[in-house]
Amino acid sequence: MDLEDIKKVGVIGAGLMGNGIGFAFALGGYPTVLSDVSDEVLERAMERVRSTADLFVEEGLVDRGEADTAVGRITTTTDLSEAATGCDFITEAIVERSLDKRELFNKLDEMCPPHTILVSNTSSLVLSDFGSEVKRQDKIAITHYFTPPAIVPGVEVAKGPGTSDETFELTCALMSAINHVPIRVLKERPGYLLNRIQHAMYREAITMWAEGVATAEDIDLGVRTAFGFRTPDEGPLLHYDLAGVWKWPEDVRRGMSSRSVTEESGLSAEAAEKIRERHAEGKPWLIEPERFDQACADAYRSYARRLKALYWPTLRGIGSGKVA
Ligand SMILES: NC(=O)c1ccc[n+]([C@@H]2O[C@H](COP(=O)([O-])OP(=O)(O)OC[C@H]3O[C@@H](n4cnc5c(N)ncnc54)[C@H](O)[C@@H]3O)[C@@H](O)[C@H]2O)c1
User: Fold this and answer.
1) pTM for the whole structure
2) Is 94's C-beta closer than 6 angstroms to any atom of ligand 1?
3) In angstroms, what is the span from residue 274 Cα to ligand 1's centroid?
4) Whole-number Å distance between alpha carbons of 48 and 54
């Protein structure tokens, strides 16, 4: 199946995530069926869809006509077979319970045409937890959106044990077609990629609070105004590059490695060794070494613009904004 063969999509579960995912597909031009257990839930979902459409118009992301056309592409049903039979791509966004997802995936497997791709928006389960009885193993995958899913562009696309490359690539292409940014997760891991990174930060934040190192206010303020401030321009690996760590003398890099990369910190011995080797090589992750100065200049300009937009008047005492 090619991207052009996806004519209609379904979203099962129209709660917090499902209605936003449905709007993203509709705005991307796809006739979209939203399905849930009751008309009441579906009415509430359509209210949320309309309110997201209004937000997009108010913020100038789309004009009124485009927003209304998108809302008009969404139909609702409590009849699962209606959603299943006519769709080429179905996203499951029901309650995060393995047994319920298993039952739904098995039903969809029975009901859907053979070519239909079935994906799950699960946040903490993996396909092996609930998808093992599905016959179309090559046509199931994960699309893990971030709340609010119509707005946050990044979406993890993850493989299960049987997901074919064709399904994986097509799903990534579909995410791009609905104005999202697919992040390829190549191995099945609980928490996938980004929740693991996010939770590592949460774990440290609540530990520091519990140990009295800082107040909740200062923990959040620090994250927002320091590394959070830079985050729109850089992830952790580009930060390593822009901070010039890869250029430090080898003994200093090795010293840093031996302090921060330890098996006691929960890394497998294999991963710890691989990271030590990488640090020792002294290679940037994402920039060409000869572009270092330019990459820094580009990033600093972007930071300066954000400083101006978000903080400068307040810090200089000439604005009424509030940093804290
Ligand atoms: N809330 C988040 O921030 C977030 C982020 C990423 C992923 N997720 C995942 O998305 C999924 C949905 O989460 P949510 O926050 O939207 O939950 P939610 O409770 O808001 O919505 C779930 C919806 O699924 C419906 N439902 C339950 N069983 C059903 C079934 N068998 N058939 C049809 N509909 C059914 C419920 O009526 C409800 O409307 C979960 O797997 C969750 O882990 C949530």
Assistant:
1) 0.93
2) yes
3) 38
4) 10
